UniProtKB/TrEMBL annotation:
<keyword id="KW-0862">Zinc</keyword>
<dbReference type="InterPro" id="IPR043135">
    <property type="entry name" value="Fur_C"/>
</dbReference>
<dbReference type="Pfam" id="PF01475">
    <property type="entry name" value="FUR"/>
</dbReference>
<protein>
    <submittedName>
        <fullName>Transcriptional repressor</fullName>
    </submittedName>
</protein>
<dbReference type="InterPro" id="IPR002481">
    <property type="entry name" value="FUR"/>
</dbReference>
<keyword id="KW-0678">Repressor</keyword>
<dbReference type="InterPro" id="IPR036390">
    <property type="entry name" value="WH_DNA-bd_sf"/>
</dbReference>
<comment type="similarity">
    <text>Belongs to the Fur family.</text>
</comment>
<dbReference type="InterPro" id="IPR036388">
    <property type="entry name" value="WH-like_DNA-bd_sf"/>
</dbReference>
<keyword id="KW-0238">DNA-binding</keyword>
<keyword id="KW-0805">Transcription regulation</keyword>
<keyword id="KW-0804">Transcription</keyword>
């Protein structure tokens, strides 16, 4: 799906910044941090425009946050766009790469009475094959 189609489907105004952010995320093939997206974003947008566009895409569930820890957050297209089920993510402790593990679905947990969940995240941390082979 192209950025313009995604924005039209979500009834959002097409702006070059929004389309640029989506283009970077789509072409990356893996989750990226805000800085990685900014570095690859064509055009020169001020911080306010970038963050407003970014926040709008997140609020409309076009991109979603993958929280690795309190210092690292990556973003990818939301499952509603990619038509993927909820899945685990792998984080490489050496190179900070995050990979969607589409074949590892997130299980539903039985919660105590009175509790309800909104979302469940599974982050598996370790070493990716590329970093493992450096040794």
């Amino acid at each position: 799906m192209k950025p313009a189609e995604i924005l039209n489907t979500h009834k959002l105004k097409r702006t070059s910044c929004r389309e640029g952010i989506l283009e970077v995320v789509i072409n990356a093939g893996q989750p990226l941090s805000e800085n990685e997206i900014r570095e690859n974003l064509p055009g020169n947008y001020d911080r306010t425009t970038f963050y407003r566009s970014f926040k709008t895409l997140e609020e409309h569930q076009i991109i979603h946050k993958i929280v690795i820890d309190n210092q690292l957050v990556k973003y990818a297209l939301h499952n509603s766009i990619t038509h993927k089920q909820d899945h685990a993510h792998f984080y490489c402790n050496d190179c900070d790469m995050v990979k969607c593990l589409d074949d590892i679905p997130v299980q539903k947990y039985q919660l105590p009475d009175g509790f309800s969940d909104n979302e469940t995240e599974v982050i598996i941390k370790g070493t990716c094959p590329k970093c493992k082979n450096k040794d």
